[in-house]
C-alpha cells in the first residue's frame, strides 16, 4: 500500500497543480450550478406552502431542502470525468504513452483525479455543509448535526466516488469503438443524473421502479450517501446499502480490467 | 433599397455557412444523434419532475399544471432560437480570442459580429425548439388563451425580443474576453440565471425576484410575457418590459463588442 502511494503521488501532485490553474473558472461554474439549487429550493418552498401538508411523499420541508443541497454536494464531490479524459487520450492517441510506462492505467488516472478533487472539496464542502446545518438549526430549533451519521456519509461518499470513477473509466473505453464521445457522454450524464437520484429523490418514483433503482449501481452514486446524511435510513438499511456499494465497486473494478485487456488488443491510434 | 440589398446578402451568406456547418456535423452522425436524444431526455426528466409535484398538489402558488407547462415551453423557445444562431459566442468566450483565432474575422468583408455568429449553426437547439412547441401545443387547449390577431402579433414580438435578451447577455459577457482573454465561466454563470425563468417569478423571494426582473432580466424572456397570455395582465408591462430589456441589452452588447474588437490583441507567436 505504501509503495502504491509512493509511485502514484506525482500524479496527485499534477492534479492539484492542474486544478489550481483553473481555480477562478471553477468558482464561477460552481456559482452557476448553485443557482440551480436555489431554484429548486424556492420551487419546493412553494410546493410546501401550496400543498398545505406537512410532508411530501415522506419528506418534510427541511428534509427536502437538505436533500437539494446535499445531493448537489454529493454529486459534485463524487463527480468523475474519467470517461472524458480516457476518451480524449484514446482519440488523440496519447494513451500509447501511458501503455509503455510500468504503471497501472486506472490508478494513474485515479490519483490524478484525487488531486484535482482537492479544489472542489476545499471550495464547496464547508460552505454548503455549514449552510445546510444552519438552515436545519433555524427551522427545527435544534442541532441536527450528528457526527456519527456524518462519518457514515463520508464513507459512503468515498465509495460513491470510487464506483463513479470506475463506471466512467469503463465508459471511456467505449471511445475505442466510437472515437467521438460528446453525444454519448451527454446522454450518459443525463441518464445517470436521473437514475442516481440527483434530479429527483428515488422515493418519489413509482414503488417498483424505485425498488429496482435502489438495487442498481446508480443509487450508490448519489442517493445512498444523501439519504444517510439526512437521516432517512435506519441501521439495517445503512448496512445493506454499504454492502451494495462495495459489491458494485468490486464489480466495476473487475469489469474495467476485463474491458481494458480486451481493448488494448484492438487499439488503433489515429494519425500519428 | 440599400438596406434590402444588404439583408439579401446577409441571408445568402448565412445559407452558405449553414450548409458548410451541416457537413461538419455529418462527420460524427451517430455522436450527434445520441447527443440530441440526451438533450430531449433531459427536458423529459424535468417535465416528469414537474408532473410528480403536481400529482400531490392541485396548484403551485396559484398556477395550474397546464399554466406551468405553458410558461416552461415558452421559456424554451427564445432560448432555442438564440442557441441556434449565436452559439459561436461561447467559443469566443472560451477559446477563439485566447488562441488568437479572432484574427480571421477581422479580415472578412462583413462585420465581425456577423462573421462570428454566422459560422456556427447549432442544430442541438432543435431539441429545445421541438420540446418548447410540444409543450405549448399540449398546454394551450387547457389554458384560457385568447387567440386574436393582436395576441399573435404580441407573441411574435415577445419571442423576438426575448431572444435578444439572451443574445445581449451572451454578447456582453463574451466580449469581456477581449480584455481578459477568456470569459466562458462568466458567460456560464450569467447564462445559468435563465433557469429561473422556467417557473413563475412569484415563487421567489423579493431579492431574487428583483434580480431576475431588473438586473439580469431573464424573467422577461418567459414568465412575464407568458403569464400575459395565460393569466392576463398589463401588456405594456409584461411585453413592453421584454421589448425594452431586449433592446437595451442588445444595444449594450453591440457597443461592448465593438469596444472589445478595438481592444483586441492577437496572441503572440
Commentary on this structure:
The complex is a heterodimer of chains A (272) and B (269). Chain A contains 12 helices and 2 strands, in the order ααββαααααααααα. Chain A is an all-alpha fold and 272 residues long. Chain A has one domain. Chain A is globular, with a radius of gyration of 20 Å. The two termini of chain A are 37 Å apart. The mean pLDDT of chain A is 85. Chain B has one domain (2-263). The longest helix of chain B has 29 residues, at 235-263. Chain B is globular, with a radius of gyration of 20 Å.
Give a quick set of tags describing it:
heterodimer, A: 272 residues, mainly alpha, two-stranded antiparallel ribbon, 12 helices, 2 strands, 76% helix, B: 269 residues, 13 helices, 74% helix, globular
Approximately what portion of the residues of chain A adopt beta-strand conformation?
Answer: under 5%
Shape of chain A: globular
The CA-CA distance between the termini of chain A, in Å, is: 37 Å
Quaternary state of this entry equals heterodimer
Q: Overall 3D geometry of chain B?
A: globular
Per DSSP E runs of 2 or more residues, the count of β-strands of chain A stands at 2
- Tally of helical segments of chain B: 13
Q: State the major sheet of chain B.
A: none
**Could you give a short account of the major beta sheet of chain A?**
2 strands, antiparallel
Q: Outline the low-pLDDT stretches of chain A.
A: none
Q: Which two chains have the most extensive interface, and how many residues on each?
A: A-B, 40 and 42 residues
Radius of gyration of chain B: 20 Å
- What count of domains describes the coordinates of chain B? 1
Q: Name the average pLDDT of chain B.
A: 90
Q: SSE order of chain A, as H and E?
A: HHEEHHHHHHHHHH
Tell me what portion of residues of chain B adopts beta-strand conformation: under 5%
Amino acid at each position: 500500500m505504501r509503495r502504491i502511494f509512493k509511485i502514484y503521488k506525482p500524479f496527485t501532485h499534477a492534479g492539484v497543480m492542474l486544478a489550481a490553474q483553473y481555480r477562478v473558472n471553477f468558482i464561477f461554474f460552481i456559482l452557476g450550478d448553485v443557482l440551480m439549487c436555489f431554484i429548486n429550493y424556492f420551487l419546493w418552498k412553494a410546493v410546501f406552502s401550496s400543498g398545505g401538508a406537512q410532508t411530501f411523499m415522506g419528506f418534510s420541508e427541511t428534509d427536502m431542502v437538505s436533500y437539494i443541497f446535499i445531493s448537489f454536494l454529493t454529486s459534485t464531490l463524487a463527480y468523475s470525468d474519467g470517461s472524458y479524459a480516457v476518451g480524449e487520450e484514446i482519440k488523440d492517441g496519447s494513451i500509447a504513452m501511458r501503455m509503455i510506462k510500468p504503471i497501472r492505467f486506472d490508478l494513474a488516472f485515479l490519483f490524478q483525479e484525487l488531486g484535482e478533487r482537492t479544489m472542489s472539496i476545499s471550495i464547496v464542502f464547508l460552505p454548503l455543509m455549514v449552510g445546510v446545518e444552519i438552515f436545519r438549526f433555524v427551522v427545527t430549533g435544534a442541532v441536527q448535526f450528528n457526527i456519527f451519521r456524518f462519518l457514515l456519509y463520508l464513507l459512503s461518499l468515498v465509495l460513491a466516488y470510487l464506483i463513479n470513477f470506475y463506471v466512467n473509466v469503463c465508459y471511456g473505453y467505449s471511445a475505442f469503438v466510437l472515437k467521438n464521445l460528446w453525444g454519448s457522454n451527454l446522454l450518459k450524464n443525463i441518464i445517470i443524473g436521473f437514475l442516481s437520484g440527483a434530479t429527483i429523490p428515488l422515493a418519489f418514483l413509482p414503488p417498483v421502479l424505485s425498488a429496482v433503482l435502489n438495487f442498481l449501481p446508480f443509487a450508490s452514486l448519489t442517493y445512498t450517501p444523501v439519504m444517510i446524511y439526512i437521516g432517512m435510513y435506519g441501521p439495517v438499511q445503512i448496512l445493506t446499502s454499504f454492502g451494495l456499494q462495495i459489491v458494485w465497486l468490486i464489480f466495476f473494478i473487475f469489469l474495467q480490467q476485463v474491458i481494458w485487456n480486451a481493448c488494448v488488443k484492438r487499439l488503433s491510434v489515429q494519425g500519428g | 433599397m440599400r438596406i434590402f440589398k444588404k439583408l439579401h446578402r446577409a441571408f445568402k451568406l448565412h445559407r452558405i455557412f449553414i450548409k458548410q456547418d451541416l457537413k461538419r456535423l455529418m462527420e460524427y452522425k451517430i455522436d450527434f444523434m445520441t447527443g440530441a436524444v440526451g438533450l430531449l431526455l433531459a427536458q423529459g426528466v424535468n417535465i416528469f419532475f414537474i408532473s410528480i409535484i403536481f400529482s400531490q398538489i392541485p396548484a403551485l402558488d396559484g398556477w395550474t399544471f397546464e399554466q406551468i407547462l405553458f410558461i416552461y415551453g415558452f421559456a424554451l423557445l427564445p432560448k432555442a432560437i438564440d442557441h441556434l444562431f449565436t452559439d459561436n459566442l461561447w467559443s469566443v468566450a472560451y477559446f477563439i480570442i485566447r488562441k488568437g483565432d479572432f484574427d480571421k474575422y477581422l479580415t472578412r468583408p462583413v462585420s465581425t459580429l456577423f462573421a462570428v455568429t454566422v459560422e456556427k449553426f447549432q442544430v442541438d437547439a432543435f431539441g429545445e425548439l421541438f420540446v418548447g412547441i410540444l409543450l405549448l401545443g399540449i398546454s394551450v387547449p387547457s389554458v384560457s388563451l385568447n387567440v386574436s390577431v393582436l395576441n399573435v402579433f404580441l407573441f411574435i414580438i415577445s419571442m423576438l425580443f426575448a431572444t435578444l435578451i439572451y443574445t445581449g447577455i451572451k454578447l456582453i459577457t463574451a466580449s469581456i474576453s477581449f480584455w481578459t482573454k477568456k470569459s466562458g465561466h462568466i458567460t456560464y454563470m450569467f447564462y445559468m440565471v435563465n433557469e429561473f425563468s422556467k417557473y413563475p417569478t412569484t415563487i421567489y423571494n423579493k431579492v431574487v425576484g428583483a434580480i431576475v426582473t431588473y438586473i439580469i432580466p431573464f424573467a422577461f424572456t418567459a414568465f412575464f410575457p407568458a403569464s400575459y397570455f395565460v393569466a392576463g395582465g398589463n401588456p405594456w408591462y409584461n411585453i413592453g418590459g421584454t421589448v425594452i430589456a431586449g433592446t437595451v441589452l442588445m444595444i449594450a452588447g453591440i457597443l461592448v463588442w465593438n469596444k472589445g474588437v478595438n481592444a483586441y490583441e492577437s496572441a503572440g507567436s
